[in-house]
């Protein structure tokens, strides 16, 4: 298989909400062994795109595949190889940090004999040692986010989808996340993250795609000196072009 077939692919995907467009006829390829960042203003459609990729929403048209498998027919084997965090961390409030990670390992079909060692490694990797025996409900928002990221990445998934993963993270947590994402990509994972933190994206992404009004409108070079300026110029040009051609969209 080539990197396209092995990675995560959306082809001509559209999704509407009661007549309003969430995502419009877009195609995106996230190749193996790369961190691909999706950036856009609030309401651009980033979360909708991620939910479509993960099967949390069904497209009105188009196809979505992960690892060469159409997600409409994919089984548990594929989903056990996916790590995801969309909107808020999924944690069990009465379970400890360790208990949450053990449960997550079981849900990803990790062999029982491997779970504890894997969890211990994740706790160390994400700096959760002093919280290992604390219940999730008493954690700060930043440490809940660390727990959510650890749960998404601990089983070394081949496919990673994270929505605003640096939300609530302190600088130390952000650096840990950055290192973890680079390691997963170096191990061959296809990684897609959405973010509005352009400076942070530039430090971790191999590729940056810009989204606006439900469409993918271009790419940015992570090495661009004035990344924020380039981003806003691209969005403004798209807004002006749409206004000239079609008038305001609803």
Strand content: 15-25%
Relevant CATH superfamily of the largest domain: P-loop containing nucleotide triphosphate hydrolases
N-to-C SSE string, H for helix and E for strand: HEEEHEEHEHHHEHEHEEH
- Integer average pLDDT: 93
Counting DSSP H or I runs of 4 or more residues, the number of helices is: 9
Show unreliable segments.
Answer: none
Query: Strand order, biggest sheet?
Result: 6-7-8-3-9-10
The backbone outline, from C-alpha atoms, is globular
DSSP strand count: 10
Architecture of the largest domain, according to CATH? 3-Layer(aba) Sandwich
Looking at CATH, which topology of the largest domain would you report?
Rossmann fold
Helix content class? 25-40%
- CATH class descriptor name of the largest domain: Alpha Beta
Give a short account of the largest sheet: 6 strands, mixed
Cα separation of the termini: 41 Å
Over the alpha carbons, how many angstroms does the gyration radius reach? 18 Å
The helix/strand class is: alpha/beta
Give the count of structural domains. 2
């Amino acid at each position: 298989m080539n990197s396209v077939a092995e990675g995560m692919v959306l082809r001509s995907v559209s999704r509407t909400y009661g007549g309003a467009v969430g995502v419009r006829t877009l195609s995106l390829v996230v190749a193996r062994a790369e961190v691909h960042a999706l950036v856009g203003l609030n309401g651009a459609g980033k979360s909708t795109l991620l939910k479509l990729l993960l099967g949390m929403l069904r497209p009105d048209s188009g196809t979505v595949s992960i690892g060469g498998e159409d997600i409409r027919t994919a089984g548990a084997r594929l989903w056990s190889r996916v790590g995801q965090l969309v909107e808020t961390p999924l944690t069990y409030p009465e379970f400890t940090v360790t208990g949450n990670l053990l449960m997550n390992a079981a849900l990803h079909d990790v062999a029982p004999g491997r779970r504890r060692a894997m969890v211990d490694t994740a706790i160390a990797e994400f700096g959760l040692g002093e919280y290992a025996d604390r219940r999730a409900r008493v954690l700060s928002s930043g440490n809940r986010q660390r727990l959510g990221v650890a749960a998404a990445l601990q089983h070394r998934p081949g496919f990673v989808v994270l929505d605003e993963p640096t939300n609530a993270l302190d600088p130390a947590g952000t650096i840990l996340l950055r290192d973890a994402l680079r390691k997963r990509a170096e191990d061959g994972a296809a990684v897609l993250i959405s973010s509005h933190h352009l400076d942070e994206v530039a430090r971790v992404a191999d590729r940056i795609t810009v989204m606006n009004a439900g469409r993918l409108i271009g790419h940015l070079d992570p090495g661009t000196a004035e990344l924020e300026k380039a981003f806003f110029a691209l969005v403004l040009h798209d807004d002006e072009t749409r206004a000239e051609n079609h008038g305001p969209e609803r």
